[in-house]
Design brief:
By secondary structure, the protein is α/β, with parallel strands linked by helices. The protein contains eight helices and seven strands. It starts with 13 loop residues before the first strand and ends in a 7-residue tail after the last strand.
Length: 266
């Protein structure tokens, strides 16, 4: 990683990454291990975990992983136990899960979709934090980072379930910061906007199919809504997470870092 990505204080620290997947989750895990951190990560899809673990170890990184449904309290506890067994405890936690349900208006949306969104985007991360808090406390403190979404700043029609769950997570993050602060455990959020990459390309193609335009036109429209005239990359967002996990942010808690190239201002 370039000098701009260097957070020396992460070397030797043990970080749990929950709900990781291709894209930002992978980038966070790989960024941490390149900084010398030991990373324990979990998500539901075993094949994705195996792929990431092999990639990290091929680069000389230190990691362990376990298939984990973060909405299952027992499985979450097992993931935290892996960190204890393999690396002696925890210094940091990052919740990266993003559970989107099919978009639908409030009047016609499926109530079960609302419940699923809350389970993945709110209750799951809180279960992870609850399971990990004791281990962080034993090490004299640490850092928790919640990966949230720009949708809490810029709600979109049809996304009431996702936006509401993420907004609740934002408030819960501040509550946790107040509760865990006396134990020197910091709790902060990162709110990514659009993240340039393969997933975003597919999104632009889907927009184009709905509007009758082109994917390039959809991209240009999104880029034009940022004041910097660029779309953030997955790495841009991962850097913000690494910063909040590192000692460089040691005086920050209950805060939110928006990474959207100025598309919205909090």
């Amino acid at each position: 990683m370039s000098g701009a990505d260097t957070f020396a204080s992460l070397a030797g620290k043990v970080v749990l990454a929950a709900g990781v997947g291709p894209g930002l989750g992978y980038e966070i895990v790989e960024g941490l291990t390149r900084q010398g951190a030991h990373v324990v990560f979990g998500a539901r899809t075993k094949d994705n975990l195996d792929t990431l673990g092999a990639r990290v170890r091929a680069e000389g990184g230190s990691c362990a992983w376990l298939p984990t449904d973060i909405t299952d309290e027992r499985q979450v506890a097992e993931l935290v136990d892996v960190a204890r067994r393999e690396f002696g405890g925890l210094d940091g936690v990052v919740n990266t899960a993003r559970g989107r349900t099919p978009p639908a208006p409030v009047e016609s949306g499926d109530v079960d979709d609302w419940r699923r969104s809350l389970e993945v985007n709110l209750i799951g991360p809180l279960l992870v934090c609850r399971a990990a808090a004791g281990s962080l406390r034993e090490r004299g403190g640490g850092a928790i980072v919640m990966v949230n979404s720009m949708i809490v700043r810029k709600p979109l029609p049809g996304y009431s379930a996702y936006a509401s769950a993420k907004a609740a997570l934002l408030t819960a993050t501040q509550v946790l910061a107040a509760e865990l602060g006396p134990d020197r455990i910091r709790v902060n959020s990162v709110l990514p906007g659009y993240m340039d990459g393969p997933s975003l390309e597919e999104f632009f193609r889907s927009v184009a199919r709905g509007t009758g335009g082109t994917a390039d036109e959809a991209r240009a429209g999104a880029t034009g809504r940022t004041v910097l005239g660029v779309l953030p990359t997955v790495r841009d967002c991962a850097r913000a997470v690494l910063f909040l996990l590192s000692d460089a942010s040691s005086a920050m808690t209950g805060q939110t870092v928006d990474v959207n190239a100025g598309e919205v201002f909090a």
